[in-house]
Structures are given as C-alpha cells and as structure tokens.
Amino acid sequence: ARNFNEYLSLTRQRDTEMFALAYYNLGYIAFHQKDYAAAENRFRNFVQLEKGENPTALADAYNRIGDCNLHARRFEEAKQCYAKAENLNTPAGDYAVYQLALVYGMQKNHTEKVNMLNRLAAKYSNSPYAINALYEKGRSYVQSNNSGQAIATFRELLAKYPESPVSRKAAAEIGLLYYQNDDYDRAIEAYKHVVTQYPGSEEARLAMRDLKSIYVDANRVDEFAALAAQMPGEIRFEPSEQDSLTYIAAEKTYMKGEPAPAKDSFTRYLQSFPEGAFSLNAHYYLCVIGKEQKDDEAVLEHAGKLLEYPDNPYSEEALLMHGEILFNRQQYDQALPDYKKLQAKATTAERRQLGAIGVLRCGALMHDDAEVINAATDMLAEAKLSPELRNEALYYRAKAYLNQKADKKAMDDLQLLAKDTRTLYGAEAKYLVALQWYNAGNYASAEKEILNFIDQSTPHAYWLARSFILLSDVYAAMDKKLDARQYLLSLQQNYQADDDIQGMINERLEKLK
Question: CA-to-CA distance for 366 and 331, rounded, in angstroms?
Fold first, then answer.
C-alpha cells in the first residue's frame, strides 16, 4: 500500500491505465484488510479513471463496490453496482447476478431472488455459482413456505450435482421439510438417503438425530435401534464420557502449542475409540501434526483414514496433503486421483484450481498427453487465472499437442506464450515457433521469428542460444552457408555456459566445412 501511494504521489502521468490500476490494487488491499469504507473509495477512484480499456477489471471493481455496500447493508447501492458489473458482459457477470439474488433475499423479496437465480441459470449455464444458486433457490421457496417447490428444487440439485457438498445440505433440507410437515414416512426415506449417500458427514449426523426424534415421536424406537445398527459411517449418538473427555484433553493440548504430547494423546484416543464420535477429528489433527513434523508416513496414514469418508469436513485438506506427498515422492499415478477428486469436489475456486494444477503437472510428468490437454483446457477456461498459471497451462498443452502431431493447435498456444520472452516458457516457446516453421520448410518465417527473438532478447540465454543454432540451420537450408558459419562462430565465442550448446555448435561447424 505504501508503494502504491508513493507511486500515486510521484507520477506525473495521471491519465494512464497504470495510474488507474494503482487505485484498483489499493482497493483490493483495503478489501482484504476488511477496511470496506477505504476499499469502496479506492475502487470508486479506479472506476472514475478507467476509460473502458479494461472492462474485466471495471466489472470486478463494481462487484467489489457492491460487496462493500452489502457489508454495510446498503442494499440498494449494492444492487446498482452489481447491475453495472453484469451490464459490462464480462466473465464476472455471473457473480454479479448471484449477488443480486442474495441481496433480494436479504430484503425478503424472495420472488425477485428466484427470478435472478433463474436468470443466472439461463444466461450463465456453466457458472461455478450454479450449484449454490440452485440451493439458494430452494431456500427461497422454503422461506416463502412453498414446500413443494422447495423439495422439487432440492431434488433437481441432487440429480444434477450428486457429489457436491451443497447437495448434502439439500438432501437434509428435503428430510427436514417432510419432517416439519409431519410426513414421517417420506422424512425417514429422505434422511436414510442422507445417511447412506453421505456417511461421515455433518448432515448425516444431523439426519440421524432427526431420525431418532421421528421414531420416538412415532413410538417406533425399536425400529430406530435396528436402523442405526445398519447405517454406514459408524455414527455414535451418545458417546461415553470417557470418549469425549479423552478427545477434548488431546485437543486442548494441541491448542496450547504442544504438538508432541498432543500427538500421543490423539493416538491413545484412536486406540481406545477407533470408531469414536471424534475419530475423524483426531485423524485430522494427526495429519496436521505429521505435516508440521515432516512425518510423511503419518500424513499418508491419517489422510488415508479421512479419505475413507469422502464427505467429512476435512476431505479437501486430506486430498491436498495426501496428493502433495505422493507428488513429491514422484508417485504421480497415485497423486493424480487425489487431485482429480479435489478438482471435482472442492467448495472454493482456489481449491478447484489447486486440483487442476495437480492434475496438469501429474499428467505432464507421466507424459499423458490426453490428461495434460484436458487439464490445461479446463484451467484456461477459468476467468481468474494468474498469468503464471496461464503460461504453465499453455506450455504443457502446447508440448502435448506437439507430441500428438497436432501442430496447428500447438502453434496457437506457442505463439501466445512467445509474446513475452521474459519468462522461461515464453523464451522456449519463441524458439519452438521458429522450429515449427523450420520443420515445415518455411525458412523465411523461421528466420523472421528468430531475428525478432534476437531483437527482443531474453534473460534465458539457453533458448536464445538454441535459436542462434536454429538460425544457422535455416541459413544452411537456404544455402547461405557463410552466414550460418558466422552465427555459429559468434555464438561459440560468446556463450559460456556448461551445457549441450557447444556440442551442437561443433557438430554443425563440422558439417559446414
């Protein structure tokens, strides 16, 4: 923040995109610090200065101004900003419509909230907010006392996205609605679905609690006892005093910053109560302690236990820790399924992206071109992908396309990368573009590409040197052997690194004699 403010005070070029972006970045700094008043002010400065050259950032700024107003419960102002963001027709439009729907819900205007959510589904069918939008639509019907529509909406969510954590909540909502309407038989079936489909989840625990109440109300306690015995997930309902106290003591020890004795306590708890009410929590803490102590075997063991119940609250972190260790051990074929599950089940865009990155890198290191192409394409479809990750995805996809002889697709990716030779991927891409022209016999285009590379320069000397060698090959093919020899001799005198370049130079000089 100090650096941006210093830039704003020093620069004389105030009518530029960079000057406007300084306010945009200051807005985000304040936003992350939860100083919403300052964030709104900075984003408004950006909006006033932005000339329409960057509609994506402009829409994002309007969304953040809307968020600041929403935080202050200035609902009408928030709606105006979200509407402006959507009207710019950028990838951020789905977020704007989703937030508009939520604001209408806060204003208890459930009809308009449903209209907005329907609009989101129609206009942004592939939006990452689609799942939550369906759930919120169901909740609107609940709050409007329209149980029939609510149940139908929640069932639609279950049918379309059965693996989503939001679907667990929807399934539980269905049971609760039947329960509240005294439709006990349907409530029982709905809650059974929650327990059997999502064992180990918090929703399953709550479903069993409500099932107990239903059977007690209906004077069918024996049926509940039989049901509880056959339900998956090893759910215990009235854990013994020893069970709970042993776990609480271990947790308190960890919270005091004493991981070694906490590890012993959690281990003793699991030995005494391997299927106890807090066994998943204990396995999670042992995962965390194992990671802190760099005990990979412990992390793999306890993360593996957590992953036996894929819908527990720690699943995503377990997948991350489990996959990371396998990846670092170069067991890419085993790490790949973890990253795929994370990508499919993550509840945040950030974790979905971590899963996609893991899939991409595993695929690349396993030389699985199809996996690389699919993962990179998924990543590149993300609206908010950092330049570094975008370059990495383009690079690996281009190399996979080259392996598959899909030269045209590879060239498209390489040319995008080659625009910035300051990066390692960009420097190699620039060389590969020229190599593609050379292999196609288009020596004039190859020469032009390499001369442009030399003119741009790069901090990555190896790929510049490879381009000089390729230029000598181009000139040799064009029967300009004198030029080819001169470039090789110049490179021989000036390139000092200890790698394969000198060998390539000598090999070509020998042929040019």
Answer: 10
State the residue range of the domain holding 151. 2-231
Q: Encode pLDDT of 139-169 as tens digits.
A: 999 998 999 999 999 999 999 888 888 888 8
- For the entire predicted model, the pTM comes to 0.52
**Which CATH number belongs to the domain containing residue 132 in this structure?**
1.25.40.10
Tell me the HSE value of 23 on the side-chain side, using a 13 A CA sphere. 23
Residue 349 inside a domain? The answer is no
CB 85 within 8 A of CB 66: yes
Q: How far is CA 440 from the centre of its chain?
A: 38
Helix axes 130-143, 93-106, angle to 10 degrees: 20
Number of H helices, E strands in the chain: 28, 0
| Residue 307, helix vs strand vs coil | coil
Q: What is the pLDDT of residues 319-367, one digit of tens each?
A: 999 999 999 999 999 999 999 999 888 888 888 889 999 999 999 999 9
- Which residues 6+ apart lie within 8 Å of 510 measured at CB? none
The first and second tokens of residue 194, run together, are 């929650």
381 in Cβ contact with 359 (< 8 Å): no
Q: What is the rounded CA–CA span in Å between residue 172 and residue 170?
A: 5
End position of a domain, from candidates 201, 231, 261? 231
